[in-house]
Amino acid sequence: xxxxxxxxxxxxxxxxxxxxxxxxxxxxxxxxxxxxxxxxxxxxxxxxxxxxxxxxxxxxxxxxxxxxxxxxxxxxxxxxxxxxxxxxxxxxxxxxxxxxxxxxxxxxxxxxxxxxxxx
Length: 119
Fold this sequence. Notes:
The longest helix is centred in the N-terminal third of the chain and has 36 residues. Strands 1-2 form a two-stranded antiparallel sheet. It has one domain. The protein is mostly helical. 1% of the residues are buried. Helix 1 runs antiparallel to helix 3 and helix 3 packs across helix 5. It contains 5 helices and 2 strands. Helices cover 59% and strands 9% of the residues.
């Protein structure tokens, strides 16, 4: 995030509006501001994930599994976000059409975590 903020500050300090023209300058400033906002969003998610991992870490994996059925969706969602990196669903085999079970087409990539934090 710091790098994107520094890039925006450097661009603004260079005072390139007269060189680029007002429309291109505005577009470049907006692009850099979008990058700063995206970095802030990513940082917020990372901090939330760390908090969730800390909270989940207070429970043993066995406790988390035992508590899972009684947890609300709001409680489950950040824990899943902290441990799941990506979910990929491939198209069904054309020969089987839509009757191919999702379990055969889904791939879950888990976040690499220290052995003490894995579920």
